[in-house]
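User: Show me a protein chain along with its predicted structure.
Assistant: Here is one chain, sequence first, then structure tokens.
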Amino acid sequence: MAIKKSELYSKIWASCDALRGGMDPSQYKDYVLVLLFVKYVSDKYDNDPNGLIKIPKGGSFKDMQALKGKKDIGEKIDMAITALAKENDLVNVIDVVSFQDEEKLGRGNEMIDKLSSLIAIFEDPALDFSKNRAEGDDILGDAYEYLMRHFASESGKSKGEFYTPGEVSRVLAKVIGVKKDTKARQTIYDPTCGSGSLLLKVAEEADNRATIYGQEKTVVTAALARMNMILHNNPEAEIKKGQSTLSDPLFKNDQGNLKTFDFVVANPPFSSKNWTDGFDPSHDLYNRFEDGRIPPDKNGDYAFLLHIIKSLKSTGKGACILPHGVLFRGGAEAAIRKSIVEKGFIKGIIGLPANLFYGTGIPACVIVIDIEHAHAVKDFDDKHKGIFMLDASKGFIKDGNKNRLREQDIHKIVDVFNKQIKMPKFSRFVSLAEIRDPKNDFNLNIPRYIDSQEMEDLQDIEAHLLGGIPNADIEALSDYWQVYKTLKTQLFSPAKRKQYSQLKITKENIKATIFKHPEFVSFSKQMDALFDEWKARTTIVLKALKVGVKPKQTIHAISEDVLKTYTGKALMDKYDVYQHLMNYWAETMQDDCYLVAVDGWKAEPYRIVVKNKAGKNIDKGWTCDLVPKTLVIDRYFMKEKNVLEKMQAAADAAASALQELEEEHSGEDGFFVDFEKVNKVTVQKRLQELKNKKAKVPVPAAVAKEMAVLVKFLELTEELTDLNKKIKIAEMELDLKALGHYKTLKTDDIKQLVVDDKWMASIERGVKTEMERISQRLTQRVKELAERYETPMPKQTEDLAILETKVNAHLQKMGFVWN
């Protein structure tokens, strides 16, 4: 059975626990990722004479398995990796860390146990990578990215720079104009490539029909990049390790000049203070700092940007992540900025949210460079030349201690930028004339041109004094009134003063008036019909999935359709609807599609067995990944489920009555006050004592009442015990019926359970919550305005005077009098 993506990731991440100890995350990542690489290539290419990677004798993961528990395990793992490296020209790539480093891995038995447990995790049969790859979807590559993201997150501020968040990488890849349908092989270059994640996202955008080049100065990080390329099926990528790209660029043409590329992307170290180390910028061999355009000695941001521009072909395009300061800082940077802008090299600027990157929390921006576009608009006047600016700083989600772009944020940025769409408070084209204007003087700080601040909710003093709801606040809800054209007149009527209205109904009836209004009901039905249309189309697509399907292509097709479906629809933000789909894809549907891609429409239950602390196997029942038992029960055994639920409700009622009885009589004068524990045994004992007394002498009424309470407690206890027994039997019977029914399921039955009952039902719930949220927002705003101005200041003063009079009267009766 195929392993689920999420399960694969969690299993591999668990391997990190075996190594953590006192080791820094930035160090232990090197061990885990190397072992992941060895396991993958061993599974994929062992005994394959034509394989991409040659597995030498003594250099496979199986050879490492034989080392578990042995005293020389560290030394022998190093030897195995060395053999694999030499056989495949991977020296200084996969052999850059030592598995016999006592300082990092411990001494003696500690090292043996640590490395043995690490190997054992990768021995799990579910991690047989030769059987767990859906064609066209880099599951292992994605796992590698997942691990690097987690390592970067835990490595702290100074050591997480090797990784560019995948969401940001995708934005860069999609805004620089990489073509999927070109026959020519495109060239992509990253001068500060880190682990190579940014390069790979651009290559993926080109359907991997691209030649990759990258330079990285850190030995271990360059090794990570090389392994990353192989795991993502880009073994021919050129990753070069050298000094800083600025002092020693390694990619040159035959004339010794900088090699030029179709696309260049980079996430260089922010504001590098030692960028001039190793060379003299004023005598640069590659003419990157022409016309005296030399960045400040202690800030290398523009040095990297100028290197990118020089590394582009005449038709080239690039994108660079830089701190916001490059947009407005003065001095030498202002002169460089002016020169670049006047030459038309900057096509656009995208402002990103703060705290996205692992190496820093400061906000950054993406500078999009387009040399071809600069040449095309060279002769345009200043009004028609300029820069497209986009402020995406508000769109993100919190993810631990960092912020992260959501799927909807990525899609919106890319759509708006590539189509050059003007959106209030988000994006617009800024002409060169405006940028050149003395009041701006080539300052590119985005807030100068886009006011993204939310409109302040102003208090109306006159309304507070004299009452009434300002018409301006009502008209601010115009998006709703355009859809519900007569609803406004149902809610509000004109006040005596112009520009003010009053609520026609009680504030308690606001929600009912809105939700029952014919136009509201009609619009809700339209939205339901719209979803049903998309659902019908998508259901056909999903039920046609078969072995070999490419899950990433599937979600791309259906998500683009949902965006198209909701484009231009009133009140509904298509990107919010899109996010509901993408959330469910990430949580559940992605794993299911990978199962279908490998195994087809199979529903195979299996036992859940876990080990306890003593190492003994414990049976935790059964489950089925693609078709959970709840789906089978809901569709085929609803009658039995309803009976079970009635028994559970009765048991809950009995348990509640029992608790109430105990609480009622556990107080100071209660019948249970002297009980050490209130249970069946202690209650029976006390009841027997009272019965014995009653047999000898008549008992007072209080004792009879106590006996009645004790009898009631025992009756409820017996009832609850009996119900729990019946529930347990019913659950077992229902469980067996459900398990047995899997054998009878045909392919069409499984498709119905998965597509209709699981996927579509969940997505529909998510989309409908969006409609509910929109409706609640209107209701809450109308109620807020009504409550804000319902008691004018004179009325408040009058009410206060009345209350003051009442209080004074009470005080006088109590003997408190003052002048």
